[in-house]
Amino acid sequence: MSQYPGLMPIADNYVYNDGTEQLLLKLTGTLPIHYKGSVYNIPIDMWLLNTYPYNAPMVFVSPTPGMMIKASVNVTHDGKVKLPYLQEWKHNSSELLLLIQVLIITFQDEPPVYSMHYSTSQTHSFLSFNPPHYFDQDLTPTYPTVGISSERLDLLRSATEPLLRKLYAIYNSTCLETLNADRLRAGGEKLLLMMEKLEAEKVDLEQLIQYRQEEITDLEAKIIAYESEIETREINIEDSIVAPRPLFRQIVETNAEEAAIQDAIYYVNECLRVGKMELDQFEKTIRKLARKQFMLRLLLSECRQKAGL
């Protein structure tokens, strides 16, 4: 909003027609317009609903004391502004800056306020813009009156005013089109950069997909070869257990040997029970196996501690 320093954002209570109030953000102040060769400031209030930008702002002309609202197709008697730009508001394309520019163009074509001050510089009285708080000078252009009749002044005024309005409308329309063209140009450059970036990412993704597809093909070939090898040879269960480190391999082997001794002790006891072994032979065998089992368990305990298990 730096382009329009006459507008200031404030928080204020908006009163609806049913009397309810709601705290809303309001842009209040003046908009500069060019009219009949001079610059004037139009007082407005622009209320932003809580649903903004999905809903259009509410714009009102706020006349100061001594000013009157000039009702038209764009401004109602109570000062509410009705424009096609507001009625066709779209949250993804409409914006406040363009709305302000549309308001300026509209007010330049037909000012929405006038004052009750009568001009004394003309032969007959007429209403003109002259509130000192908002306007720099009288809205009606000053013509030299020496030797010129009032009829000729009226004729000169009626001939120049439409031309000036058309010129200001063309000027503002050109400014608006130039602004839109610059924005479109900047947006086009951004889109080109985005398209180039997306194209580069597309190439990278295609290369990655091709690389992964080659890996999948290679893995499928290895799986087929491995399955064929399994079908043609007998698998040794002991060869299928591969320890990643020598310490783990020692743990596996020691645990297997200790389990085998446990089985041997069981069968020696069975031999004694069924009378297949003498008592003295049983005692020697059990003592030997128990000693071996103790040493294996001690070694297994040390290996587990070193491995952190």
List keywords for this structure.
alpha+beta, four-stranded antiparallel sheet, 309 residues
What does this structure look like?
- It is a single chain.
- By secondary structure, this protein is of the alpha+beta class.
- It is rod-shaped, with a radius of gyration of 48 Å.
- The protein has helices spanning 84-87, 96-109, 150-232, 237-240, 246-273, 279-307, and strands at 7-15, 21-35, 38-48, 58-61, 67-69, 113-115.
- Strands 1-2-3-4 form a four-stranded antiparallel sheet. A two-stranded antiparallel sheet has the order 5-6.
- Helix 2 (96-109) runs antiparallel to helix 3 (150-232) and helix 5 (246-273) runs antiparallel to helix 6.
TL;DR?
The chain has helices spanning 84-87, 96-109, 150-232, 237-240, 246-273, 279-307; strands at residues 7-15, 21-35, 38-48, 58-61, 67-69, 113-115. The protein has 309 residues and is α+β, with helices and mostly antiparallel strands. The model is unreliable at 118-147 (pLDDT under 50).
